[in-house]
Amino acid sequence: MSEHDEDGYAGEAVLVIDGTEIATTVELRGYFQPIDGYYRWYGRVATNEQVSAAAGGKKTAVEIRAGEYSAKGELSDPDPWDRYRIMGTSTPPFHVPTSLEELNELNA
């Protein structure tokens, strides 16, 4: 049994950390949580020396831009491969189908 259906994005993104824009690659997923009514998104940022230097190995507020979409989120501690986890609540930095027709078009 699946807990929830996930949406996602993998590709190029720009992270804004303390006013500095850093081009990187991300893999993101997200889902609507019906219990509290929020959309939760999360993922990983590819290993990137500029991200590591700006975040300093700790939780950091971030803006993420992926094409025409953007969102505010948080970087957390890096994993052993120096990939930071990124997460946020509410509008995600990627497209999410908003109608059954659109969902059917994506799945066709």
UniProtKB/TrEMBL annotation:
<dbReference type="Pfam" id="PF16170">
    <property type="entry name" value="DUF4873"/>
</dbReference>
<feature type="domain" description="DUF4873">
    <location>
        <begin position="6"/>
        <end position="96"/>
    </location>
</feature>
<dbReference type="InterPro" id="IPR032371">
    <property type="entry name" value="DUF4873"/>
</dbReference>
<protein>
    <recommendedName>
        <fullName>DUF4873 domain-containing protein</fullName>
    </recommendedName>
</protein>
